[in-house]
User: What shape does this take?
Amino acid sequence: MADDLTVFEVFGRERKGEPHRHAGSLRAADAQMAVVLAQELFCRRKEYVQIWVVPRTAIHWAPDGDAPLGPEPQRVYRIGEGYRGTVEKWKRFGGDGDASRG
Amino acid sequence: MADDLTVFEVFGRERKGEPHRHAGSLRAADAQMAVVLAQELFCRRKEYVQIWVVPRTAIHWAPDGDAPLGPEPQRVYRIGEGYRGTVEKWKRFGGDGDASRG
Amino acid sequence: MSDGRLEAFEARIARGDLVEADDWMPEEYRRQCFRLIVTHANSELMGALPEREWIPRAPGLKRKLSVLSKVQDEIGHAQMIYRVAEDLARPFGISREQMLDDLIEGKAKFHNVFSYPAPTWADVGVIAWLVDGAALETQGALLRTSYAPYARILRRICAEEAIHLKHGEDIVLTLASGTRAQRAMLQDAIQRWWQPLLHFFGPPDELSPNSERTFRWRIRTRTNEQLRQSFLRKYAPKVLSLGMEIPDPELRLDPETGDWHYGDPDWNEFWRVVKGGGARTEARLELRRMTREQQGWVLAAMADPTSAA
Amino acid sequence: MPLGDELSAEGRAALGEYLLLMADDELVIGHRDSEWCAFAPLIEEDVAFASIAQDEISHAALFYELIESMRGLGRDQLAFGRPASEMRNATLLERENGDWAFTIARHYLYDLADELRLEQLAKCHLPTLRAVAERIRREEHYHLEHGAMWLVRLSRGGSEARSRVQAALERVVRESRGLFQPMAWEQILVAEGVIAARPSHLYQEFRERAGTALATCGLRMPPDVPPGEHPRGRTGGHTPELRELLQTMGEVWRSDPTASW
Assistant: This one.
């Protein structure tokens, strides 16, 4: 019987201000039932102020192969590491190098 | 015109063992475009090892918020279309529409 | 009936609660949030244009990559913010398309600074360092805004702006320690950008009905003057330490208060620019209009139902 | 051990020429890609295409650094300091961007040609060059996926989009032979075992691979052009569009090449 049920992924928001996080998955005949079940399974102790329920077949994911997401190695000019020389350069002007970050 | 494009929600896993967290959303013409664009919108700095991309219309939620989060009035997304068409490597394009990424 | 909800809403805000996209909110709260957020999105999109002119001319492979990456981030910020604005404005029936049309037809506002020309490479350093520094002040203060979807994207925007700041510093420091011509180019850029930077924070808050409500509902948490002072405290000393002059004879630090006193930055110029009179405003809006016409066919191809996979 | 030390003097010179050709290809297409920044047809695509532009420029930097290790000329000197007559890129890549259909069609077919070239390099026995080729191939995987996605979308996006993309393919194919222009030094690299076959001999396989790929996108591969009309960018036969590009690109750097920027 179980195999004609659809798998749904469940996401929950723990508090206002927090993004939804994956909480688990469940099997159900349809979306309405999945929502009811999810509230039962995941909200009994008010763990979440809101839940999202999504059929697994509607999820598209990346990466598809083994290539990692994002460039390898990391692009240094996109992160702070690419500009570590500025601390040194500020010293030449008597600055202590990080004041502008307050 | 741009507002006819479907809204997709994006979830990302920061490290192995971490649950997927909601990272944001984007508009795209279809799931293939959404997955390709989501990679550069959310992973330019290696923020995630994997991302899930879901059309917003496939999301069912509870408890009901007060404002509709659901399907865009002009373009109701057909759940059937949610079946996972993919763009394989250049040899097996999404063009023939049924290759599964599974 | 809704008065009950208004009280409850205001009590929640006063307690420091946050508002999510699908929560009930007074229509005026939604309108005020939308006004602030769509102006921010427009500013990010228009803000990319002065530096964008320098991607093709950036000297050296590292600078070419970092200017391109920075402008890409600004477009990425616009994407995140328009998405928040779209979800917020759906009950008003306003789409992203509508927001872009209003921007192009000069009906929508964006930050004054992005109407100014960027004639030299030094402008790229000054914009990335000082204009992004100013933006980081206002955005940092908005991290505590009550509208949660906006606060969430601001965390990422501020983290990326902090990297843009280092990229800008690196250019400015290289010019400041370079040839006489490079130092002169830097001084000229600071000369041109100082007044627009003071304008960036807006005139001192006369408690207009708008600003009073944005504070009561904790959409904004710091006044224009507080933000301007915070900017001056951080950046005026650093500009001076480079041996550069600041074009304001009255600029001085008040040792007791730690505040900087500055000469009147000509608010008529500010209002003239904000109402679309900036030197480059029309040219940049025209650029966006032309692009929209040339690419209408791509948007049509994306929306074409026959092509849905 | 600098790259190519175990090769003969001619072998090293030939390798330097091949690296310069690849570096100039990637730099010029990366520069053209970057011109779309802030003006792509959809804000979400604007961000994605700016990453592709950065990839190509970064790949150019990798090749220029390999040449720097062999000839001592700095990577910025190589990229910003040479006139059009010394640039080795194929003319197809220097053409202005035109509409989105031309940009996508050109990029996709160039990515296919580049993939063939990189597959060959990934088998070469010089470890440094093999490692660089491997890294670039990983990032090019995304370019092919991005190009395929757009070609499928445009070919099924209604009549105007379909005719624009088919017309763009006609223009691109007319100049794609220039990507495989025969060069004198090719034979030396084969003789010294750096690569298994002359790069210009990859043209037929390129046409087959492109034909298969376009068919699955629902598009026709335009016919080949008669041999006489092939562009000769790799031996200095450039267009005014490259001269203008280099003039713009070098404007600040050339104002004082000895200064640090």
